[in-house]
Fold this protein.
Amino acid sequence: MQIILLSGGSGTRLWPLSNDARSKQFLRLLDVGGTGRRESMVQRVMRQLRESGITADVTVATSASQRDSVLAQLGPQVNIVTEPTRRDTFPAICLACEFLAREKNCAPDETIIVMPCDPYTEAGYFEAINKMAGGLENSGDELIVMGIDPTYPSAKYGYIVPAGGTASPNGVIPVKRFTEKPDVEQAKKLISEGALWNGGVFAFKLDYVTRIAEKYVKAENFAEIRDRYEEFPKISFDYEVAEKASKIGMVKYHGDWKDLGTWNTLTDELKTHEYGNVTTDGTGRNTHIFNELQIPLLCLGTQDLVIAASPDGIIVSEKNKSENVKTFAATLKQRPMFEERRWGSYKVIDSIEFPDGYCALTKQLTVNADCALSYQRHFCRDEVWTLIDGKGEVVIDDVRRPVQRGETIFIPKGVKHALRAFTSLTFIEVQSGSNLIEEDIERFDYKW
Amino acid sequence: MQIILLSGGSGTRLWPLSNDARSKQFLRLLDVGGTGRRESMVQRVMRQLRESGITADVTVATSASQRDSVLAQLGPQVNIVTEPTRRDTFPAICLACEFLAREKNCAPDETIIVMPCDPYTEAGYFEAINKMAGGLENSGDELIVMGIDPTYPSAKYGYIVPAGGTASPNGVIPVKRFTEKPDVEQAKKLISEGALWNGGVFAFKLDYVTRIAEKYVKAENFAEIRDRYEEFPKISFDYEVAEKASKIGMVKYHGDWKDLGTWNTLTDELKTHEYGNVTTDGTGRNTHIFNELQIPLLCLGTQDLVIAASPDGIIVSEKNKSENVKTFAATLKQRPMFEERRWGSYKVIDSIEFPDGYCALTKQLTVNADCALSYQRHFCRDEVWTLIDGKGEVVIDDVRRPVQRGETIFIPKGVKHALRAFTSLTFIEVQSGSNLIEEDIERFDYKW
């Protein structure tokens, strides 16, 4: 068995804690029951998979911008397949399946489970996944989906209508049809007929999907498929695969299944009310406060609020209005002010543009021990690094030398530079020049 | 006539916009009616003085920490007398009077008006001041005080009980006695007897106070008085002077007289609801938002709140609880993260301390055109300056050279350095070392 974990989303609904580089599923806010530790949604799903006895390899299908976050949070225990451009779930799942078939040499009859990384669920969800895999072996179904027991007639979800047959020993029941998001009246009727929510979890044999993929991209190897990624239609897996399958089964899941994608739904699950440098007078009611800035945040009183501060911005919102953040966050868009990268992390601590267009951007960066920044140069900006902690070495125009805390390195435009950390290495970087964009970079190979 | 404007206060009640270096009276939040410009309390008082036809010289009595703020906001149009240490209103007024007598050579019978800089008042307040000065000339009173028409039986103010005589042509009525803060029941009784609030505005002849001052410090010159400042008793002017005067008059003032020293009272006077980089959904009710940070602040809904963010911190408070900020601000105390200085201003953009005690502090500084940083050296820290705008010159261990945007200057510990700006000059400073305190400084004279 192989697991494909879908990790997408831009995450503006949890602004300012989430941004393009740090989607909601990477926020480390969830309590790991009783341990005092916190984990993110993707970390929780990985932990739950393992705790439920599922030892299958996991391949995360994600966008290039999330690659470093996945690596930082899940480490080398997963494979990562990144989409060259963002499309939809059908192309993303095809790409991951082709990776398994051609790079990991999985057999055509390997059982594949596709699952999203963001529903907040209980152990029964993973038992259902095991049943789906078992059912696939002996039901003759092309596809087995997970049906979520609906708790209200939602117009937000797709529905799965059962055919009415009896369940197999694995708990698989035949599916009659799928219905896309209905209105509330239709939803009520569907539920009365026994329909369930479509949870976006699928089980199938690997070649079932690779054969469909070949209809769009027939290639020699995985690299070519990835290069021709845009030839896949921009369509969901539900439309392109599930609704066209001839024999489909369903396994029911009854239990918690929540999208913690808005401040309102997320805070419902958080027992901790204050994160980071927060002081209160103890009179707040139903107020959740998140402070990722170094400066103190003081809260006196307040009711039914969510307050969050990060290097990207500050929100103060009534909880029942917090869904609207998406509308505004788009207009507040700026460069990400904080990023977790595979080599460490950085935050922007100052940004200023002068009337003549000259800019300065100051960052605090930490490169993890044994990690390195790539060898690179810029054409529009100078950089000054002041090392304030740790030891390592730099390469400046092919000359390598050791550096440590207290040293300052001036890197004029056009000069190639790289840095490697022996111990965790922190420095302040002042970029200045006429055009401070991430794209002003030329990368070189360097053999350390 | 000479005006002594008392400017004190630590300003924790308007945290995080106010701090030790920027007391509430320096916050530029008040609308200058109809002009679109904003002014601070001290700027408003100066403007009102001039608009009411009072052309007398103004001497600001303040603490050393506020000297630069006064200079930055009022400029050279005022004299500044700073207390060597903070004591109380009696010593502060003595010091200012000695300054007028000995440094400004004012005559012993010069009329002195002492007034606080922070009540929010109307034109009538300044008419009353003119009447106090006029009354002093022909009433024979040693002291004339301003009585504020009370609007409620407050237990927060001192009261002035009139003697019951008739008013002079200048509107001066005899005072029977002063009463310090009563309880509410006593206050009701006092008001029924015609008592007024003591507004802390005094008129007297210069030598009336210098003769009292001499009882404590008899000195050759002003410098000696300032050196021996601690010999003055720590006592208020009311106790030491007003309550001991034998013949006292009072001029009544009827009109607005407000202490805008809490978020609640301040925001009552502000027609503007959003200051700085603020976005709202337009559904907020009675919410005032102040954002002095560069990052955006988004507010969705909310009622009866004050929200303020500055480099010192963030507050979100119900308005009726905002008085409590004082209690908490003390515990959140840290170095001021923003200061207006006589040479310009700076803000702290990053601060980090490592487990071994080594620290780094990063600031963005702007030195105004034609201003200079003093010649100095440090023993515990290195500094790195990266110039990002403007032109000027630096002195490094007695060697002077021109500098401009794009240059980086490394100043190891022990090296003397100064900087002068030809045009407004902005730079990023990274301090790093074992002990980053303001006191790690040795200053030298330098002739530019």
Summary: Chain B has a mean pLDDT of 93. Chain B touches chain A through 60 residues (CB under 8 Å). The first strand of chain B starts at residue 2 and ends at 7.
